[in-house]
Amino acid sequence: MPMRALITGAGGFLGIWLTRALAARGDKVTCLLRRGSDASGLEGIPHTRVEGDVTQGASLAPAVAGQDVVFHLAGVRRGATREDFMRVNAEGTRLLCEAMVASGSRPRLVLVGSLAAMGPSSPTRPHVEEDPFQPYEWYGESKAEAERIAFSYGDRLPVTVSRPPRILGPWDRENLAFFRLATKGIRLELAGGPRPLTMVDVEDVVDALILQAEHPRAVGEAFFCAGPGDPLSLESVQDLGARALGLSPRTVRVSPWLLTALASAADGVSRVTGRKLPLSRKMARQLLAPAWTCSGAKAERLLGFRPQRGVEDAVRRSAEWYREHGWL
């Protein structure tokens, strides 16, 4: 029987891929989109559009009505203040849960969290789900609070959480800057590295989300969604991207203090102009952390989930898509 699914944040990178996968299965997909938001990535995918905003509780009732599952992807990754993150990522989750409870149908909530809620890992030990939240910036703090809020509704709603690390694939803008550097002949190398990164293909994340929407053992649990193989470094990701593009960029070595200074300057430009530049202090702190790694063992043990797509292939697909669609 087709699943009736609502996706918040459906117009974003992950939302586009999730909408496509659910529609391909024959599920009935509703996309919650803010008025005026870019939904070009959803063109040609069968779905019902509902205008609404997770920060406006009254707009959520029509969207959640009659749903079997709510995939909560909506959120902000950049903001000028802590309140910017908390209002959308944390309080938006609370308003969505309230609307789901009020619907009376007990749809399952699949919340997309983030490895950022845990904070950086040790270079020698990946995070596991039992580790405490230790976010060290506002985005991670707001994602940790979103999880706490979601699970506080566990007596009224079936709740499960997915915590992806850095996601790769076509439509992704978070990693686009590193591919663009390669086209300018630059390979960025951060002094003091390498700094291991767990990464994952967007289609593996989608597979995990759908599994969490259906598997009985997912309820009440949070899972990391890690790609296969060993972690990569920022430098190795750039090498893979350059190879896919047929480029041989020169290495530019950047010290931590210079990256931090450039990021502070970029934040200043963003505040004055309103333009969101690729570099920010948040990005710099993430890049300079000792490691961002996590283990996918729990998802394999409880759900039988095994990622099917290598990160190297995800980098290649991303590079080819960026070039084909004029993003580079």
Describe it for me?
This protein is α/β, with parallel strands linked by helices. It has a domain of 211 residues: Rossmann fold (3-Layer(aba) Sandwich). Helices cover 41% and strands 15% of the residues. The strands form three sheets. Strands 3-2-1-4-5-6-10 form a seven-stranded parallel beta sheet, with helices on both faces. A two-stranded parallel ribbon has the order 7-9. A two-stranded parallel ribbon has the order 8-11. Helix 1 crosses helix 6. The longest helix is centred in the N-terminal third of the chain and has 22 residues. The mean pLDDT is 93.
What is the strand tally?
Answer: 11
- Supply the helix-strand structural class: alpha/beta
CATH topology description of the domain at 4-169 and 199-227 and 293-308: Rossmann fold
Instruction: Report the C-alpha radius of gyration, rounded.
Output: 19 Å
What string gives the helices and strands in order? EHEEHEHEHEEHEEHEHEHHHH
In CATH, the architecture of the domain at 4-169 and 199-227 and 293-308 is 3-Layer(aba) Sandwich
User: Main sheet?
Assistant: 7 strands, parallel
Instruction: Name the poorly predicted regions.
Output: none
GO molecular function: aldehyde dehydrogenase (NAD+) activity
Protein name: NAD-dependent epimerase
Domain NAD-dependent epimerase/dehydratase: 5-219
